[in-house]
Specification:
This protein is mostly helical. The protein has a five-stranded mixed beta sheet with strand order 1-2-3-5-4, covered by helices on one side. A hairpin with a 3-residue loop joins strand 4 and strand 5. Helix 15 packs parallel to helix 17. The radius of gyration is 34 Å and the shape is elongated.
Amino acid sequence: MKRKKYLLDAESYTKNLSNDTTRLDHLSRISLAYKKLEDSLGFRQMNLKVQKLSENEGIFKALGESHWDLAAFFKSYMVMDSAFFHYKKAYKSFNELPTDSTSQSLKGRILYNMGWIQDYFKDYLGAEVSITQALRIFNDLEDNPRIYNCNNLLGTIANNMKNSGKAIEYYKKAQNDLKKLQGSLRINSTSEIQNNIAYVFLKDEEYAKAEETYRELLNDSNLKPINPLLYSKALVSLSYALSKGKKEYSTAKDLLSEAIAINENTGFSFDQARAKQYLAEVLAAQNDTVGAVQIAHEALSLAKETSNNDHHLLILKLLTNLDSEKAMEYSNEYYALNEQIKNEERIIRDKFARVRLETDEVIEQNEKLTRQKQIWIGAVLALLALGIASYIIVSQRVSNNRLKFQQKQQESNQEIYNLMLSQQGKFEEGKQLEKKRISEELHDGILGEMLGIRLILSGLNDKEDDASIAQRAELIEKLREVEEEIRTISHELSDASYQKIHNFIVSIEELINTTGKSSGIECSFEFDEEVAWDNLVGDIKINAYRIVQESLQNCVKHARCQKVDVSFNVDNNGTLKLVVADNGVGFDTGKGKRGIGLRNVISRVEKLNGTLSFDSKKGVGTTVTVTFPTQYVNLDTPAKVEEYRQMLNV
């Protein structure tokens, strides 16, 4: 009673807190305290307060954690459908958080719990999807204990789906994961994974392999004192392998007697039904029918008490063969229980489907509202732009400046034409330069697109749902577009291709955003809004674009970073400074070979009479800085540049 009074006092104290985040943190702790006191009502009431407050304030981390706590509460009471529902709610909340290591870890742990529940209710395909998504997240985070858990559970799921080859493959991966762990976790998990591998052999009726693996497990002198339950399960499984394989009924009987004694001493009643079922089978094989029937009845009672439906059915089937007088009664009970289990599994699968459908409908509705909001904002901006454009059009000054612009453009075109004529004498040299340029375009442009597509396709590799199929179709269409880009580059063998970078800053932003979405890296872009970027000559724009593209590609392939910052600035001396900084693993700048990508960057910088520098430390990140002099549409003097800017800004 005193502890509950303290919790009520603590709740009163939180009402005086002005910071919502701090208040939510305290309330969450109070709700968990109620749970530890086994005060279900207090926990549920406090949890509901946390949900409402965090939802009203838009604090998604607290909202997700409150659903997580409630899911764990239902899971502890074996109310699995409600637990799954709240895990799904928690995942939706965590999905609203900015993408970083913390939010990714939260989503991965929720997906793991959802997959565990789906496996529990034999929704094996759904479980495999959830655990695979969680594994992908934990691999990115290098979270070795949870990587082991995922591979172990995937092995169990594959075994339940009767895919023993795939189960062994996952269990072997889990064994390799254990090499990265330390302490008691590694010791206990080593025994667990060996038992799982042996059980696969047992289900496949490879009794010799099962016997060998179980004996290796039981030879560990530390297993029985540290984990008596696993020791007992291994004894039962080894006895089954011996009775079915070598027909060593006496040895199997001794092993089962030892296991049954351990279960009784430890109160491990769930596996006791299996142990006594196997003992009944051994007695029947020794022609002790009376003893077999007696033990089978004991096993049947234990299966009912522990809701062990799988062995409940097997024991009924065994009694049908052993007790001929009641064979019809056992057969009818077997049929009724089997139908009941199938109906319950069907209901649970339907509940899972409804939960997923309801969640998807909410997401779709939110996306629809967002699109409508964007349309209204776009319409308002369009009207505003139309008004400004109308004002500019009726101004005579704009008309005159446009005429000046056209005149200057004609002069620039004439200059380009004269330059092309002067280069006819260097045709062979031009061919070599053009080959080099096309190589750079293919490496920096096409490979960047292909890398983004590969990253997304790798995430969809094992998925067969409709959404994944549709997304793969979109990516195939994207590949067709890449094919068109290759064809375009092949045909555009003149300097005119360098003039295709219009809306320069928009192109850079689109490149950065596309890279961020495809790789999951948080990307930012800063630039000096006072600079007339679109007025840069084509050589500078295309080479700056390709340098940024190659740097981002290196961040995705090598840096293993979570964040990349890109900035463009022009100083008072007319020097363009381009900086690409990541927080990745870094590298030793004095070592390593230069690949074609880096050689292309160096070539582009030298072409523009610029400088290139790297600042990198292992574990800190890498900063690439490029500087080169700027030129604006071939204008000669700063006065003309300023005149041209004023003309465009009017």
